[in-house]
Amino acid sequence: MNVTELIEILKKFPADLEVVVEGYETGLDPIHLVKQADITRNPGLCGSKGFEDWDGEYALAGEIPGHTDNPRQAVAILGRRGHRRS
Q1: Which domain of life is it from (predicted)?
Q2: What gap in Å lies between CA 43 and CA 57, rounded to an integer?
């Protein structure tokens, strides 16, 4: 995907949405998917046990069992092999 293609995709989303990307691990991948998603702040950043430095600042809503923080909409940019990160 090139810059022009990415801009055209991003124009389809509300301009005020936050944009998030997959985090951590090594290397770079081409963009595979750009989607609107419900995200929630990772409670591990507040000192909860069971979370590590490499856990992302946000998680997809419903991804963390028992976490009921208010989700919000964002645009998530995902790499081709991002599914291997979990």
Answers
A1: Bacteria
A2: 9
Strands (E) across 10-66 are located at 18-21, 31-41, 58-60
Q: Pull the structure tokens for residue 86.
A: 């979990």
The stretch 6-14 carries a mean pLDDT of 98
Q: Are 23 and 63 in contact (CB under 8 A)?
A: no
Report the chain's mean pLDDT, rounded to a whole number: 83
- Residue ranges making up the domain that contains 37: 3-85
- Tally of CA atoms within 13 A in the half-sphere of 33 that contains its CB: 10
**Least confidently predicted of 9-18, 36-45, 70-79:** 36-45
Q: Is the pLDDT of residue 74 over 90?
A: yes
Q: Alpha helices of the chain — where are they, by DSSP H? A: 3-10
Distance CA 76, CA 14 (A): 13
The number of distinct structural domains making up the chain is 1
